[in-house]
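User: Hello! I'm new to structural biology and keep hearing that structure can be predicted from sequence alone. Could you demonstrate with Outer membrane protein assembly factor BamD? Please show me the input and the output so I can see what each looks like.

Assistant: Of course. The first part below is the input, the amino acid sequence of Outer membrane protein assembly factor BamD. The second part is the output, the predicted structure written as tokens.
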Amino acid sequence: MKKLVFFILICAVLTSCASKFSRVLKSKDNEYKYKMAENYYAQKRYSYATQLFDELFPYVKGTPRFEDMHYKNAFAYYYMKDYLNAENLFKSYVDNFPGSPRAEECEYMRAYSFFKQSPKVELDQTPTSKTMGLMQAFINMHPGSAKAKDAAALIDLCRAKLEEKDFKSAELYYNLGYYKAASIVFEILIDDYPDSEKTDFYKSLSIKSYYKYAELSIIDKQEERFEKVLAEITDFNERFPHSKYFKEVNSLKAPSEHTIKYIKDLKDEQAKTATQR
């Protein structure tokens, strides 16, 4: 019974609030609307505040109030997690008020709004890439900013996310049996992320992929392709002598050498047979 009464009271309060806001919205008094928009923002009732701010933009544009309202409207959308509109408003603020003391903060918040739009690894990472570009631009423009360190950390997070997405693409090629493509994409990973802690891991997977590609090739192509496997193993050993994948990579050496020897012996035998004829 108490829960029912509480629910009825909540519904009554919400209905009353909505009714009051409806009257504010319909009012022809822009000064009254402006005052209520400020009140709603102060009370963190951002949905109401943004509706009034948006409506009042033409009214306050060109007045001393415009900058502050623009700033608050951008943050209101941000607090509502409407990051797309927030990003647009932060950008618009910087474009309109480049000399404002708040411009630096809004530059950062524009980039951060893109970061908040960054989706799961499996999805398109355009917002992630955009975040990196904007955060780097922020650091370049404001190297002494208190936010420069945060911006650099976010760039690292975004780079790690892009690296993980690229790795998953290479892994998918491998799992589907497209071993040549997998080998190439793992090598691209190494080139694109040279400072990654996983470089030796990617290299090992590239070699493993190419080994499987060579293994499945027609016999006329196997010698050349297993020779490449051996060359890549040598490169791996020189670059990563202490890698935890050292033993796994080198386990492919003996079977590669054995196959090459077998093919050479087969060619010699075929040559002898041809000569005898």
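User: So the tokens describe the shape?

Assistant: Right, they're a compact way of writing down the 3D structure. Reading them back into a model, for example: The chain is about 80% helix and 0% strand.
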